[in-house]
């Protein structure tokens, strides 16, 4: 019986944990991308 309970917990929390992990990856990825864009913008702005 304990293994069926743990399987139910995995099915219950698995998608939520996956969603949180994808959210963290998205924010890290977008943060790096935004930082790169800001550096490029600053270089172009100072180049004028």
UniProtKB/TrEMBL annotation:
Keywords from the UniProt entry: Membrane, Transmembrane, Transmembrane helix
UniProt superkingdom: Archaea
Annotated transmembrane regions: 12-29
Protein name, as recorded: CcmD family protein
Organism per entry: Natrinema thermotolerans
